[in-house]
């Protein structure tokens, strides 16, 4: 499996730009490869070849910030900020005291690196979605069509480095402790229309308008919970958060969301995460958010703000509790590690229940499709099988979840 970098230094990452060395074992011209290649971690190539805009250096910016950092999300580990000089990225600032925990930001950065490398090495997604058109390159044909995106990592700032660059003119209000920061591709919020659609389904009466008018709720992402039909929502009233709004299966179906498609894409994501990255996916998050739609050769030529064109999609993030799994170990040990992570934390909410026939079938189909392709590419087929793992998981999940 891909090694975890020994440190989050950006110089080390920049020195290893090459991507995974994927080869076709059926091609007689391909040199023999070890059963478990140990590729270097790349410099963080942008997802699907999409490049973030070139930005001026910190020293070249105005000495006076245009506006303060904006809190756009938070959890027990960190607070997420947007900065006016960085419209395409978000900044995850570690909470004071978290550096000594197992879920610290340094460790999550390293796991995220491994997952992103697997996404770049084993998956592809065409600009408009869909399947490879005629004439698609052989390298794409060998990869997994995957429409779940992982935010691109941009830079790791030590506590001291963040103080000298990001916060050189003052820390965000109320968060003045110097801590580590990770800069990554920003997941844009859902549109006002989408926020209203979800809010009216989840909340009732006057609460809807209060929630929609509450400023922080503009930064809205939705968690599609396919593993549970309904659930509670904690705070009600204007401060009810829509930042990571849980929307359960019954409400998703009432809204007409394509839950079978979401289940299939979640399955593919787990398949690549398990067998491409060797990461168990413990307590990861899937969210519905938007990204800027890249317009190429549109007619008539677009002359307005490019950021007005967005596309909604599924994102995978939150690797703070993930662990790497040694794929050299026996199959039952590996299957146990992956299964135990899939039935804990948020995973039991995202992953369809094994007793939910059509939805589970779509998840398992997506998982098998992706996992078998990666297992084949990595020459793991003599010891592992996606179908065998899913049978193991089904029995395990029945025992744990019922």
Features:
402 residues, 11 strands, five-stranded antiparallel β-sheet, two-stranded parallel ribbon, 12 helices, alpha+beta, DUF3669 domain-containing protein
- The gross shape turns out to be globular
Q: Secondary-structure element order, as H and E?
A: HEEEHEHEEHEHHEEHHEEHHHH
Instruction: Provide the low-confidence segments as ranges.
Output: 4-9, 11-50, 53-63, 127-133, 295-307
Radius of gyration: 21 Å
| Strand order in the largest sheet | 1-2-3-7-6
Largest sheet: 5 strands, antiparallel
| Termini Cα gap | 32 Å
Total beta strands: 11
Region (Disordered): 1-69
Organism: Podospora aff. communis PSN243
Biased composition (Polar residues): 7-27
Biased composition (Pro residues): 34-45
Topology:
Layout: H1 10-14, E1 70-74, E2 78-82, E3 89-94, H2 105-122, E4 123-124, H3 138-141, E5 144-145, E6 153-157, H4 159-164, E7 181-185, H5 192-202, H6 206-213, E8 221-225, E9 244-248, H7 249-254, H8 259-277, E10 285-292, E11 310-317, H9 331-342, H10 347-350, H11 357-377, H12 386-401
Parallel strand pairs: 4-5, 8-9
Antiparallel strand pairs: 1-2, 2-3, 3-7, 6-7, 10-11
Walkthrough of the structure:
The chain has 402 residues and is α+β, with helices and mostly antiparallel strands. 32% of the residues lie in helices and 14% in strands. The strands form four sheets. A five-stranded antiparallel β-sheet has the order 1-2-3-7-6. A hairpin with a 6-residue loop joins strand 2 and strand 3 (89-94). Helix 8 packs parallel to helix 11 and helix 9 (331-342) crosses helix 12 (386-401). The longest helix is centred in the C-terminal third of the chain and has 21 residues, at 357-377. The two termini are 32 Å apart.
């Amino acid at each position: 499996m891909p090694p975890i970098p020994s440190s989050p230094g950006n110089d080390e990452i920049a020195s290893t730009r090459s991507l995974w060395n994927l080869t076709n074992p059926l091609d007689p011209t391909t040199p023999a490869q070890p059963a478990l290649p140990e590729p270097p971690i790349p410099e963080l190539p942008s997802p699907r070849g999409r490049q973030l805009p070139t930005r001026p250096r910190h020293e070249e910016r105005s000495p006076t910030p245009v506006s303060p950092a904006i809190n756009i999300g938070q959890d027990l580990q960190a607070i997420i900020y947007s900065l006016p000089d960085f419209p395409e990225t978000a900044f995850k600032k570690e909470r004071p005291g978290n550096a000594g925990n197992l879920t610290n930001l340094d460790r999550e950065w390293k796991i995220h690196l491994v997952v992103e490398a697997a996404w770049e090495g084993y998956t592809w997604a065409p600009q408009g979605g869909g399947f490879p058109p005629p004439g698609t390159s052989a390298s794409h044909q060998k990869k997994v069509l995957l429409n779940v995106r992982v935010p691109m990592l941009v830079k790791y700032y030590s506590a001291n480095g963040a103080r000298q660059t990001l916060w050189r003119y003052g820390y965000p209000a109320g968060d003045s402790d110097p801590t580590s920061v990770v800069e990554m591709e920003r997941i844009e919020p859902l549109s006002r229309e989408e926020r209203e659609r979800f809010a009216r389904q989840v909340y009732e009466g006057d609460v809807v308008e209060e929630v929609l008018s509450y400023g922080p709720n503009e930064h809205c992402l939705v968690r599609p919970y396919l593993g549970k039909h309904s659930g509670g929502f904690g705070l009600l009233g204007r401060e009810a958060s829509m930042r990571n709004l849980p929307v359960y299966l019954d409400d998703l179906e009432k809204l007409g969301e394509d839950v079978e498609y979401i289940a299939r894409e979640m399955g593919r994501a787990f398949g690549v995460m398990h067998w491409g990255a060797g990461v168990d996916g413990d307590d990861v998050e899937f969210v519905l958010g938007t990204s800027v739609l890249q317009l190429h050769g549109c007619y008539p030529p677009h002359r307005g703000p490019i950021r007005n064109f967005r596309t909604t999609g599924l994102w995978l993030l939150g690797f703070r509790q993930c662990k790497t799994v040694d794929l050299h170990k026996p199959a039952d040990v590996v299957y146990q590690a992956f299964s135990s992570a899939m039935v804990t934390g948020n995973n039991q909410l995202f992953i369809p229940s094994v007793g939910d026939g059509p939805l589970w079938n779509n998840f398992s189909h997506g998982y098998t499709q992706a996992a078998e392709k990666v297992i084949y590419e990595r020459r793991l087929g003599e010891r592992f099988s996606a179908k065998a793992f899913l049978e193991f998981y089904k029995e395990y999940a029945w025992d744990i979840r019922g």
